[in-house]
Amino acid sequence: MEVSGKHLHAYLGIPYAEPPVSDLRFKRPRQVSPWEGVYNATSKPPACRQVSVSLFGFAKLNYSEASEDCLYVNVWKPSQPPCSKGQNCPSRSLPVVVYFHGGGFQWGDSALMIYDPANFVALTDVVFVTFNYRLGFFGFLSLDTEPVPGNVGLWDQNMVLKWVRKNIASFGGNPEEVTIAGHSAGATSVALHTASPHSKGLFKRVIMQSGAPVSMVLTLFFSGQGKFINIAGSLGCYDTNTTFDGQINDVVSCLRQLDAGFIINKLENINFLKRIFAPVDNDEFLPFSVLSSKPWQNLNVENVLLGTTANEGSMFFHFLQNAFSVVDDLLATQYRTVSTVVLSQALHIPMSEAREIVFSYFGDYGVEHSYEEVRDVISDMFADATFNCPTQLFAEDAAQQGIGTHRYIFSYKPTHSFFPEWMGVAHYGGRLLHNGISAILKGPNSLLERIWLTH
């Protein structure tokens, strides 16, 4: 293909693991078996199984065609100049970028337009790898036991890094010059790999866009036995007349035999918060608490580029408005109380501490605020708790270790943004610029894109 006047090669849908179906469901990825002959790598792979999602009222992502057979990589590279037979043509190994897609560990895939790297490769001369990993129920269901160890989505990512280490030279990439990058949950994943002993030595640099390890703080409490029992029961795999320990193996066996489409249909009818599954800590892959300081004081990386947008929280406030009809009414009169309770529950802190935090944002109790002010302040609180502070803490930890650290704030709102004006530069506000999708950009947008990608 030709992009921005440059010829590129794209190798799409290369398997990196066996399909995680049947007995392999909920298990760590198994290395793919070799094949004979020429593999047809011309089609993007299906997304991993997930509940279809409405992107905060702006777009609907339909994943009805998703599959459990989804563990594939895509490799993009610039074409090499032609070399006549007999000539001594120099070859050079290009730096490699491995990109982790976002989506809160619940949705997303490598085929989405916002992750298309064609322009990035054309502008920067790198080998670019995208991939799928298991999500939600299929990727992060966890009981901290052998039948369902959890974090298999992170193990998928780890296997991709090992695949790159072993195979990327065949695509003109340098396995010693690997940068792993990601946005949102992808950035959180990247950060976790810098501390996991299982990913040590598989990359040199990281780019974290709108995500950091402590960004997991709101999902760490969404796992556990109660949620598992609720979902297993709704799927017809749990006997309430038998103890949990006495049937765990039978329950997992039942879950492995169910049709994936049937599971997704059932999950769609379960409250969103009751079907969220995300990474867990204190297991083999993450043998530590992400909320402790120790794991972040010995990072396996040489250079870090990380940042946030100017208005990270606005998109999530918009989500709350769409998901819960009572939000506007509650915030009109009870915004201090609601904010205090939510902070206390979400962060597992005493009400008195949550009250102090709310006071620091809203000020004296004698001062009332307009709806717009409340909306903006709550958006800022969410942004600070979930993105800004975790990113800053990671940057400080990295810098203190002598790691080359660069922190940015992305505050330019492109003219093509589909977010309302009040949302500012929201969570996905700079995504199209970061990957170089210049085909839809004009004027200063295209110029900014080139500056971002080439400096």
Automatic annotation (TrEMBL):
Which terms does the record give in the GO molecular function aspect? acetylcholinesterase activity
Q: Which UniProt keywords apply?
A: Disulfide bond, Glycoprotein, Hydrolase, Neurotransmitter degradation, Serine esterase
EC code:
3.1.1.-
Q: Is Iron there in the keyword field?
A: no
Q: Which InterPro entries match?
A: AB_hydrolase_fold, AChE-related_enzymes, CarbesteraseB, Carboxylesterase_B_AS, Carboxylesterase_B_CS, Cholinesterase
Carboxylesterase type B domain segment(s): 6-428
Name its GO BP terms in alphabetical order: acetylcholine catabolic process; choline metabolic process
Domain of life of the source: Eukaryota
Catalytic center at which residues? Answer: S184, E312, H427
Question: What is stated as this protein's family in its record?
Answer: Belongs to the type-B carboxylesterase/lipase family.
This chain's protein is named Carboxylic ester hydrolase
- Lineage summary: Eukaryota, Metazoa, Ecdysozoa, Arthropoda, Chelicerata
